[in-house]
Amino acid sequence: MSYSFHPEAEVEFLQAIDYYEHCRENLGYEFAVEVYAAVERIVAHPRAWPVLDGEVRRCQTARFPYGVLYVEEGGEILILAVMHLHRAPDYWKHRLD
Question: Which CATH fold topology does 2-86 show?
Fold first, then answer.
């Protein structure tokens, strides 16, 4: 199964990498590895993660306070958000359109 990022999800992912990299050298890389590990788990078992809203599911990262929000569409995973779990929870909903 393949996956893709919603354009806004890709931007927020890259911004989070930059943020962590500014906090400590290589921390941005470590964050990216965590997110891609979550994406690999999603691709391997797309229905294993809890439903958050409608068809949207969330797989949390192990080390960072982030969740990868996604939907399964026509045999592909669409990543809607790489969401910090301590911020506004519904900001991504407009991406379903």
Answer: YaeB-like fold (3.30.2310)
- φ, ψ of residue 13 to 5 degrees: the values are -65, -50
Query: How close are the terminal C-alpha atoms of the chain, in Å?
Result: 22
pLDDT in tens, 27-57: 999 999 999 999 999 999 999 999 999 999 9
| Cα angle value 67/50/16 (rounded, 5°) | 5
The CA-based angle 22-64-72, given to 5 degrees, is: 115
pTM of the model: 0.92
Domain ranges of the chain: 2-86
